[in-house]
């Protein structure tokens, strides 16, 4: 089947070029289901704007029926974010789901309802407790209801990669007849191999009536580390939409990473002769923004956006790169947003130079108040360090760009002596009111956390405490990660400061703010399409 035959007259995209692959980003929905992740409304709006600027075609903004917060997030993104199709998730068998999705999406310039139901024997028997014929009926009901609210409807076969081929064909045919314009076959549990995914899409395109009138989509999880490979194989099989997330975030081992897929298509165009609408020079900026919002750092050796992705330590490699970068670099750092300039800032650097540095690091949209706060912290840090590197600036600015925080760190004084309890006086700002507390503890960090619990009482349990240096040297800033657990909900917070104890308190406060966002969030069934 030709590449053009199943990409015609789509309600949102019209007739796409034969080589065009649609990028469907689900960072705000599937990505936010990652354990410990949480975004407030302002953070979701920032990410949505960044994703739209990056050039994603479809943005899955959330699951409106899950909670009032999810509904409001989808509604606000639909109202304010331009350029991308805004998508909301719903269950095929949930009339309230589909109605909520339609209502939340109402302000969008272009909108999509994405409904799903499980189709594998395992899921139907033990999760849904439904017979196959009932599932088929719900596919028809759900897609018909969604099509009554928008012309752009996507249907997903949850656990599609483990669904019996004959039944999967029947399900896809039913969804198309009921009005679905995009058909997604997820490898929900990350079980499939590339050969499996290519075979599934080729089979559906060959066997299902009407398959040439819809777009097929791939959504691959990374449990076996095959998410990106399975996605590229799906494209070989005929998929023309890729569902992915920034930094590969998502449940369990995550989703196929947007930046890896896009750069694989671009770099190996000889093997994958397809294009996307992604502005690749912005990949690093968006990756860093997400890492800041979620408090999940990208591992150093992560492809494309990890800090070692273009680093060369071997003498042989360094020599080769100096002579010709192509000897050991298959793409340029600049093509994904890295810059070779590493201007070192110091205490004599002015506000203009600092602003230029922030723009180069991807923080060009900082408002004046946050810029002033960040610049003040930079000057304080520059008085303590001989040289302030890019990593230092990123760490301190990350603390300043967080939005809608109910609790903010104020000040801390500490008395500590070996062999004796440490004592701390801590001040916080809670919803605009200054709160102070004194506490002692077995060491300065324990005392600081005791003071924090006194200033803002809560029952969350400290599940993880980790400290790392932002840069090298004894004067390096400390970056602290704190994980809190409450009623099964996990959140991570990060903080940075030249003072390790202050860094720890900033991280704890950040985690508390995220916990407040997550407390009232519902967790409906069947959330894992």
From TrEMBL:
Name of protein: 2-isopropylmalate synthase
EC number(s) per entry: 2.3.3.13
GO CC terms: cytosol
PANTHER family in alphabetical order: 2-ISOPROPYLMALATE SYNTHASE 1, CHLOROPLASTIC-RELATED, HOMOCITRATE SYNTHASE-RELATED
Keywords, alphabetical: Amino-acid biosynthesis, Branched-chain amino acid biosynthesis, Cytoplasm, Leucine biosynthesis, Manganese, Metal-binding, Transferase
Annotated ranges, domain Pyruvate carboxyltransferase: 21-284
Species annotation: Acetobacter persici
NCBIfam families noted in UniProt: leuA_bact (TIGR00973), PRK00915.1-3 (NF002086), PRK00915.1-4 (NF002087)
Recorded name of the encoding gene: leuA
Region ranges (Regulatory domain): 408-529
